[in-house]
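Name: Phosphoacetylglucosamine mutase
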Amino acid sequence: STPQERLSQIAKFSTLHPRPEGHKFAYGTAGFRLLGSLLDSVVFRVGLLAALRSRKLDGETIGVMITASHNPPDDNGVKLIDPQGEMLEASWETYATKLANAETDDELTKDYLAVAEALKINLDSPANVVFARDTRASGPALVAALKDGLQAVAADYTDYRILTTPQLHYVVKCINTATTATPYGKPTEEGYYEKLATAFQIVTMGKPKPPVITVDAANGVGGPKLKELARYIGSDHIDINVVKDEIDAVEKLNHQCGADFVKTQQKLPLGLEPASLELYASLDGDADRIVFYYVDEASKFHLLDGDKIASLVAMFIRDLLAVSGVDLQVGIVQTAYANGSSSKYLTDILKVPVTVTPTGVKHLHHAAQLFDIGIYFEANGHGTVLFSNSAMKSLESFEAQNPGQQDAVTTLLSLAALINQTVGDALSDLLLVTAILSHKVWGPDEWNLAYTDLPNRLVRVVVKDRMAFKTEDAERRLVEPKGLQAQIDALVKKYKSGRSFVRASGTEDAVRVYAEAATRLEADELAVKVSDLLKVL
Ligand code: G16
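Structure predicted for Phosphoacetylglucosamine mutase:
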C-alpha cells in the first residue's frame, strides 16, 4: 500500500475509537491505567504503537497486556511487553503518551508518522504482536479496540485470551528466544505449566512435602490458573487450596481480599478463618504479586511480605552457593517501602549488597540485572530473581567435586527454571517459597523468625494535584512541594527508629505516605501527622 493509503486506513479505524474529551493520558509505572470506560481510544492507539515497536525491532514479537492488576473492578489498563519479556523500554513511554493524547484522527496519523520517521522505522517490515487480558468486565471490548489498532496497521497478532500478566511475559520471551541457543520454553499456557511443574518437582525431589497452603486469588485470573498449575504438579508434591476464586462475580475482584488489601491493611482477607500456624497467601488481580501470612497460637496475624520473601530467597541461594563452591555475586534490590529491619538483616546478617530504586518493576529489574544473581522484591510482593547469562554458564559448566556440591548446583539450576525470569510472578514465587520451606522443613513461623518488622503504616491521601509531588533519592525525599520535606524531617526526628516518605502513586490518583517507627502506636501517629501536612496544601 502507498503511504497515503496507510494513513487513511489508520484514520478510518480511529474514527471508531474517539478520544474522550478532557482527559490527559500518561504511560505510568504500569502502563496506562484508569476507568475501563475511558480506555477505548488508548488501547486502540497502543495497538498502533505495539506494531511500530515490533517493526523497529525487525519483527520481534511484542506483548500487550490488558489489566489493572490491584485496582478496583471498574478500572482497567494496558501495558506493553518488550521482546525479552521485559517492560517497555522507557524511552518509548513518551511515544505511547504522545499517541494516546492526539486530539484528532489527523493529529494521530501525523504523530504516528513522526514516530516512524524519528526512529527510521520501515513501515513495510513485519509486525508481530501477542496479547491477553485479565477477567475484568471491560476486557473484551478493549481487546476489540486493540485488534482494530493492529488491523489498521496490518500487524500479525495472536490472541492468548485470558492469562495472568506474568504468563504473557513468559510467552513473549519464549517466542523471541525460540530459535536462539537458549530457548526459554514452549510459548503456550501449557508450556508455562509444564516448565514450572517440572522445575518444582526437581527442586523438591527427595524433600518432604511443603506445608499445605491456602491461597486467596483476589477473585481474579490467578484462581483458575493456579488450580491448573497445581494439577500439573500433582497432589503428591504439593497441596494448594484456592479460595476467593469467583472470577464471574466481577465486582468482587480485589474487594477486601488480594495481595494489596492484605499488605496495606495488614489484615486477613474478608471472611478467611485461618487455622493457627498454617500458611496462607494472597495474589493480586493479575497474579504478579503475592504476600504470605499466618496467625500464631494467640491468633495474632503475621505478614510475610515481599521483604520477607526476598530475605528467605537470599538466605537460601547464598547457602546453596556456599555449599556448591561456585563463585557468584548475589545482590538484592528493594524500594523505599522495604521495612528497615529487612534491609538491616540483608546487609548485616546475610551480608549481601542492597540497592534501592524508585517504585516500579522496570527500575528494580534493571538494577537486579547488574548482579550475577539479582533478587528484587517490592514490599508489596512483586518480585523475582534474575540469573545472568554468565551465572547460568558458570553453573552449567561447574565440575562438582562431591555429591553435596552437585546437589546444590542442580538445585540452583532448577531454581532458575522455576523462577519466572521475565517479571515478578505470583504463581512462580509461590512455588519458590514453598520449595524453600520444604528444603528447610519450616512452617511460616520459622520463616518469620529471621527478623522482626518495624511497625509500619501506609496511608493513601487524595490531593488536588499529585503531580506536584516530586521526589529524589529513590523516592525517599521530596523536592517539591517546597518546604514539605523539612517538615517531614522535623516530625520523623521525634520518633525512635522513625522513617517516613511521601510519593505520588503511579497507578492511582493519590499520594502515598509511608511511616515506620519502633512501636505500632508511634508508626500510626507518624503516618497520621505526615498525612496531615498534606491536607493543608
Ligand atoms: C504496579 C507496579 C508496581 C507498584 C504498584 C504500586 O503494580 O507494577 O511496581 O509497586 O503498581 O505503584 P504505585 O504506588 O505507584 O501506585 P500492579 O500490581 O498494580 O501492576
